[in-house]
Write a structure and sequence with these properties.
Number of helices: 6
Structural class: mainly alpha
Strand order of the largest sheet: 1-2
Number of strands: 2
Largest sheet: 2 strands, antiparallel
Helix content: 25-40%
Distance between the termini: 43 Å
Order of helices and strands: HHHEHEHH
Length: 144
């Protein structure tokens, strides 16, 4: 973190020099495996045809994903990520290192694509959902 060429903001702010926690005082690390298990156990939401996606476009995308683009070589069903070790050096996957060079370990992670429709333009992007969320928040603020 003190390498100003690789981590200019962290180095400028001394993030690499933060005090280290004595393992006996660490209240977080031992809880991380349970947190990871919980996160991996949360099922991705199921998309609704016609609402969250266009079925015809999805069929074309699935053909490309599993065929010519070879996305499913790494984004494997039903996990939609790579089973096992999903970190790779740029040369292993045949792409440049631009983004990997910004990571402390210099690798790419095979991203989980489950529920991407929600993050990109599905459930959370629906106008009705946004309006309901805003109204619920406003009601909650008014009641306090």
């Amino acid at each position: 973190m003190n390498n100003a060429a690789k981590f200019p903001i962290a180095a400028a702010n001394g993030f690499g020099d933060l005090p280290h926690i004595d393992p006996d005082d660490d209240l977080i690390t031992k809880k991380l495996p349970a947190l990871q298990f919980y996160q991996l156990a949360i099922p991705a939401p199921a998309p609704e045809a016609g609402t969250d996606f266009d079925p015809a476009a999805a069929a074309r995308g699935d053909e490309l994903f599993s065929g010519k683009a070879k996305c499913n070589n790494c984004h494997v069903e039903p996990l939609w990520t790579e089973p096992g070790w999903n970190l790779h050096k740029p040369a292993e996957i045949g792409i440049d290192s631009f983004e990997a060079d910004r990571a402390p370990d210099g690798v790419y992670k095979t991203m989980n694509l489950a529920g991407i429709f929600v993050r990109e333009n599905g459930l959370f992007m629906r106008l009705r959902t946004k309006v309901v969320t805003i109204m619920m928040a406003a009601l909650q603020l008014c009641s306090t």
